[in-house]
Specification:
The chain is an alpha+beta fold. Helix content is 36%, strand content 28%. The longest helix is centred in the N-terminal third of the chain and has 20 residues, at 19-38.
């Protein structure tokens, strides 16, 4: 079963970390990620840029309205996510706990994935044998 682990935190705090603080958190997360890669459970993980870089398309009117920003209503914003392949929710929660122990603050939302389309650029290169 594929699960997404969505990483929420206060982006003002995270983006104010010094390079050393950010590297320390990324190094701790890398230890967890490396173990998951070796176990064949780690899929894609992404770190999103701040919400100030976001654009929202609102379909509530015609034509759809394009607005700068995500217009998040909460203090914490979605900062990134992992895609993992595990047997069940309990295993996904265990991984989320490991990630949480490496990263100060925030929250992790665990959500099953109904549809997964791998990066076709990667598949195309594998299929044709090109690098």
């Amino acid at each position: 079963m594929l699960y997404a682990i969505l990483c929420y935190n206060e982006e003002d705090v995270v983006w104010s970390w010094s390079q050393e603080e950010d590297k320390a958190v990324m190094d701790r997360l890398a230890l967890v990620q490396d173990r998951l890669v070796e176990a064949g459970k780690m899929g894609t993980s992404l770190r999103l840029l701040p919400t100030t870089a976001a654009t929202t398309l609102r379909k509530s009117q015609e034509p759809p309205l394009v607005i700068d920003g995500p217009f998040a209503e909460t203090k914490e914003q979605l900062l990134g996510f992992y895609v993992i392949e595990v047997a069940n929710l309990e295993e996904a929660l265990g991984i989320a706990r490991e990630l949480a122990s490496a990263n100060p603050g925030g929250a992790y939302e665990i959500r099953p994935i109904a549809l997964y389309n791998p990066d076709r650029r990667t598949l195309d290169k594998r299929d044709t044998g090109s690098a």
